From TrEMBL:
Thioredoxin domain sequence ranges: 102-253
Higher taxonomy: Bacteria, Pseudomonadati, Pseudomonadota, Alphaproteobacteria, Hyphomicrobiales
Species: Bradyrhizobium australiense
A molecular-function term among this protein's GO annotations: thioredoxin peroxidase activity
Gene Ontology biological process terms in this record: cell redox homeostasis; cellular response to oxidative stress
Low complexity bias: start-end ranges: 21-64
Alphabetical list of InterPro entries matching this protein: AhpC/TSA, Peroxiredoxin_BCP/PrxQ, Thioredoxin-like_sf, Thioredoxin_domain
Swiss-Prot/TrEMBL keywords: Antioxidant, Disulfide bond, Oxidoreductase, Peroxidase, Redox-active center
Chain's role: Thiol-specific peroxidase that catalyzes the reduction of hydrogen peroxide and organic hydroperoxides to water and alcohols, respectively. Plays a role in cell protection against oxidative stress by detoxifying peroxides and as sensor of hydrogen peroxide-mediated signaling events.
EC code(s) of this entry: 1.11.1.24
Keyword Heme: no
The name this protein goes by in its record: thioredoxin-dependent peroxiredoxin
Family: Belongs to the peroxiredoxin family. BCP/PrxQ subfamily.
GO cellular component, one term: cytoplasm
Superkingdom of origin organism: Bacteria
Length: 253
């Protein structure tokens, strides 16, 4: 066989070449068609938002502790208050004004307080004597000044009747001394800044003025007999003529 013949026979014919060239194209087309025809692989379902029921369940589960805590706190608020809490609440409750229950015949409450001019005075200092205590709101105010002057005017008459007169307010000792010097008062003036004596004798309590309610000194006078017992009390005193009325009561016991 000649070289030319061998070459011819070894080379595929144009027909064959076309067929072989078409094969890959056909295969490609077939592959595409197969891919199209083949069912698409199942896509993984995207995570759907939880259903309403699931949401509700989740919320309920999440909310349970809070609800429980709320219920627990509500229950706790309805539990009986502990004794300790009751005790502390009672201690915070404003105390009733001491001394308002003073009645004739009761023993006079003891006291020991500073006075004008220095030193102090106590109930024991006047044992066996009649004692007049007049409680006034404030030194050197019009009504208090008139009252103190009236008791000073009658001091000799009280002494003759066997009684001693003491004036008491919440003013400082210095203020009491200024009050005494300015109006030439002869009755001793007691300073009760802490309201100890005022409360004990019922002279500290609720007052009202111009529609306003407040705590303050109630103008009060207490007569103590020589036996140390309360003989008479005057509350919400009207100044005019009061000192004379008290003197008459002193003479009557």
């Amino acid at each position: 066989m000649s070289k030319k013949t061998r070459k011819k026979s070894s080379m595929p014919s144009s027909k064959n070449r076309k067929t072989s060239a078409a094969k890959p194209a056909a295969a490609k087309t077939a592959s595409k068609t197969a891919r199209r025809a083949a069912p698409a692989p199942a896509k993984k379902p995207a995570a759907k938002p939880a259903s309403k029921a699931a949401k509700t369940a989740t919320k309920a589960a999440a909310g349970k502790p809070a609800k429980k805590a709320k219920t627990a706190s509500a229950k706790a608020s309805h539990k009986p208050t502990s004794k300790q809490l009751i005790k502390s609440k009672l201690s915070e409750t404003p105390k009733p004004v001491a001394g308002t229950g003073l009645v004739e015949g009761a023993m006079a409450p003891a006291f020991n307080l500073p006075r004008d001019g220095g030193g102090s005075v106590s109930l024991a200092d006047y044992a066996g004597k009649k004692l007049v205590l007049f409680f006034y709101p404030r030194a050197d105010t019009p009504g208090c000044t008139r009252e103190a002057i009236d008791f000073t005017r009658l001091s000799s008459a009280f002494s003759d009747a066997g009684a001693v007169v003491l004036g008491i307010s919440a003013d400082t000792v210095k203020a009491q001394e200024s009050f005494r010097n300015k109006h030439q008062l002869s009755v001793p003036l007691i300073s009760d800044e802490q309201h100890e004596m005022l409360e004990a004798y019922g002279a500290w309590g609720e007052k009202s003025m111009y529609g306003r309610t407040f705590m303050g000194i109630i103008r009060t006078t207490v007569l103590i007999g020589s036996d140390g017992r309360i003989a008479k009390t005057w509350r919400n005193v009207r100044v005019d003529g009061h000192a004379d009325e008290v003197l008459a009561a002193v003479r009557g016991i």
